Amino acid sequence: MNKTYKAHLALIAITLIFGFHYTIAKSLMPDYLHPMQLLFIRVLGGLILFFVYHKLFVREKVEKKDMLLLALCGLTGFALNQAFFYKGLDLTTPVDASLIHVMNPIFVMVFASLIIREKITWVKIAGIIIGGCGAVVLILYGKVVNMSTNSFAGNLYVFLNMVFYAVYLVLVKPLAVKYHPITILMWISIFGFMFILPFSVWTLPAIQFQQITITAWLSIAYIIFFNTFLAYILINLAMKVVNASAVSYYSYLQPLIASVASVSVGNEVITLPKILAALLIFAGVFLVSRKKYA
User: Measured between alpha carbons, how far is residue 29 from residues 26, 34, 104, 154 in Å?
Assistant: First the structure.
């Protein structure tokens, strides 16, 4: 199996992890954890895993000239991205958040063109339009997007989360080619933790640990290990082979995963519009991820 196929398998795994994350994170807030409490636990947990793994198996050093870029990645990819996501998800719904994330590949293409001069082709544009149509059909079919005051604020936070994640994908690309994924993620998580610490540490005394159930602890473990440690490693591995636009494009598959999860628990049924939406999404992924264009 060549590197390109491995990269796209990694992106599919990331999509599965992120797709379930919406529902899992939403189940924790606000009953068990405040958004900033969950952010602190997630970033600290990820930092410990990255640090231990790096010291045991990698031990790679980075050049001083790359520290500023690593700090910017920590700010955009860990601190601002995740803070706005949890704050937004606490106020809005997974459906609204998924709809907003559909725009992520558009912003990645724009930032990639401006920052690293990544070429935008008509095939990529066509793939994004086709996949975007499928994602919108899937999300909006039989749904009503709530735009009340709280939901509007939540949607705005999720929009900012999506923008900063797009910037992160572009900024981390040159680092992903140069360093081991664990080296990058250890430093990014260190900087990210430093950035979020002043805004989250004051919320920790209010955590009611005795009220957190086993299921909630398992959800927290999922977010730390799968959604932070494993997913970010896979992102960096994929970025060694494919460009930022192709990585971001897989966000179109997240609504599909969310729908499958809903069907599995009896909240949704498979319908013709959903099948059509899935076909459009996969057609778009095929166009954007073709080796000639990715």
Answer: 5, 6, 24, 13
